[in-house]
Structures are given as structure tokens and as C-alpha cells.
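agent> Task received from the user: take the single chain below, predict its 3D structure, and emit C-alpha cells. No templates, no multimer pairing.
agent> Plan: (1) validate residues, (2) run structure prediction, (3) serialize to C-alpha cells, (4) report one or two observations.
agent> Step 1 OK, no nonstandard residues flagged.
tool_call: predict_structure(input=
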Amino acid sequence: MIKIETDFTSFRHGIINVIGKVKIASEQGMEKAVKQFMDDALHVPPTVPRETGGMAASHSAFVNNNLVATSASEPTTGEAAPTPLLVAPPTGKELVGTLIVHRRQAASLHEGISRHGTPYKFKSPGSGKKWIEAKVIRFGQKYFGMIAGRIRRAK
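)
tool_result: status=success, residues=155
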């Protein structure tokens, strides 16, 4: 009779270590991706409307409810002030990257419909409706690649 005993303690510790590294790398990749997402929404057509700059200066990027960037430094006119959101609404335990435009009229402008139900006429060159949604469609794979790339480089 042959008896084999195996101690999986080091294997278990290795798995715990890898899970921790993947979690950290995922969060770092998500931070990079959500910052790029915000930058693309602000500067790649269709861009955020910029009549006064207040809308452009009111974007906030969060990773797991932690503020990682705002667009408060975007230029505004004297009549508009930056209003980025500094605290995110709570999310679950999964990894979440969030881009919030903190202006009352943000949703209607994003959809291109005025508060009166008429199509909105964008005046700023390069601006247009769906400035956020268009970036997810156009660059979604790039953002996921940023997260995956950071995980691949984790050591």
C-alpha cells in the first residue's frame, strides 16, 4: 500500500495572493479606463455641449464609489460654475466604474431633446447628443482592454 499526503497550504496562500493582486489590478485598470472615458466624452466628437462650459466642468469619474477624477478644470464662462459630484451613490460589491454628469439638464441634452420636447440644436462645434453613450459604443473595447491589460501586467 502506498500512502501519499499532500499539504495544499502553500497553494491556498498562492490563490489568496493572486486574487488580491487581480482585485488591485482590476481597480487600477478601471480607474485608467474611466478617466479615459471621461476625457473622450469631453474632447472626442460628439463632445459635451459647451455654450457656457458648465456642463463640461461637471463630470465626475468614480471607481467603486471612490472619486478618481473630475472635469472641474474645464474652462467655463463667468455665468457657469463647475458642479462635479464629489460623492457617488452606493453600488454593490462588484467592480464599478461610473461617469456622472452633475447638471440638471444633462439627461435631456444627452438625449438631444429640450425640456419642451423639441430637438435640441447644438451650437458648439463638435458637440452633440449622446456624447457619453457614443464613447461606450465606439471605445468600449479599448476601455475593457485597459482593464485587462492592467490585470495581465499584475505581478
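agent> Step 4: summary for the user.
Residues 15-152 form one domain.
agent> Done.
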